[in-house]
Specification:
It is built from two helices and five strands; from the N terminus they run βαββββα. The chain is α+β, with helices and mostly antiparallel strands. Helix 1 links the parallel strand 1 and strand 2 (about 40-45). Strands 4-3-2-1-5 form a five-stranded mixed beta sheet. It is globular, with a radius of gyration of 16 Å. The chain has helices spanning about 25-30, 90-100, and strands at about 10-15, 40-45, 55-60, 65-70, 85-90. The protein is about 15% helix and about 25% strand. The N and C termini lie far apart (about 40 Å).
Length: about 120
């Protein structure tokens, strides 16, 4: 399932998280560890130690939305060498990550604006 994330900022936690955490626990991590406002128009992505579960948290006008996905086989391709407290992704990179692809290696085709066609 692909979600149109629009023009939101996406932040990936660089350390595994206990997947028993609910909305309150994850929003506390956003505030204290990532130093962001949980009610901003951003998506915050968390994963577990085995890298087979992902939770996405974002604020939608009047409440939090929690998206949870578990891979039945394989692992998410999250680089272990990410440094810092959070890593910024595009909406496309997040969809690639959720699809199980190596989002760091994928790139969109550049947009071409033609002045003349022939």
């Amino acid at each position: 399932m692909q979600i149109n994330w629009g023009d939101v900022d996406v932040y990936l936690a660089t350390a595994p998280v206990d997947m028993r955490k609910n909305i309150d626990g994850l929003s506390m991590m956003v505030a204290e560890v990532m130093r962001q406002s949980p009610q901003s128009l951003s998506v915050y992505v968390f994963y577990n130690r085995e890298r087979n579960k992902v939770k996405c948290l974002w604020w939608d006008k009047n409440g939090f939305v929690l998206y949870y996905k578990r891979l039945e086989k394989g692992r998410y391709k999250i680089p272990k060498a990410l440094a810092g407290m959070s890593f910024s992704l595009s909406g496309d990179e997040l969809n690639w990550l959720l699809a199980g692809l190596e989002f760091m290696l994928m790139r969109e085709q550049p947009t071409h604006l033609f002045q003349a066609y022939f």
